[in-house]
Amino acid sequence: QSSGKSTLLNTMFGLKFAVSAGRCTRGAFLQLVPVEPGSSKFDFVAVIDTEGLRAPELGLDKYRHDNELATLVLGLGDVTVINLKGENSAEIKDILQIVVHAFIRMKMANRMQDLRRRCIFVHQNVPAVGAKEKMMDQNCKMQEDLDKITREAAEGEKVASVRCFSDIISFDSDKDIFYMSDLWLGDPPMAP
């Protein structure tokens, strides 16, 4: 919640998803981004912005809601960008569990197809310039956590072939974890 997902997508793709302080996005919104002619076999990229997971106002219904939302979005996407606020991934373990379960469900539903899905983690609001180098230990810990969560989820789903996170989606902790400073600059704040 309130981690800057819409701002990140606006900055990455030059879009205009609604942004504000606090929780803003409710539901899921899609915008099409034209692809440079001749650069791809596709004419557009679909970018989906969703509300965050674990919204306290949903009460007990948040678990079902979060699982449905994650499964829908992860099922549609070829690339999933998971936005983390700050450097500490420990506080988002419950969100990672939801994401891992959704990835496993997608893998099970599409086990006859070799889908090329990818997962990218973006740590926003990390002030240090050399954060990636300084966070190597944290990246290893995050990889261990993802693998552990994946094993537990796979056991719960009775999927013996899945033992680590990269078994369900293309992920390399050296290449797929990014750190960036605040995306808002100036007064009033605006995306760079």
From TrEMBL:
Residues 1-192 form the VLIG-type G domain. One of its GO terms (molecular function) is GTP binding. Pfam families: URGCP_GTPase. Signal peptide: none annotated. This is VLIG-type G domain-containing protein. It comes from Macrostomum lignano.
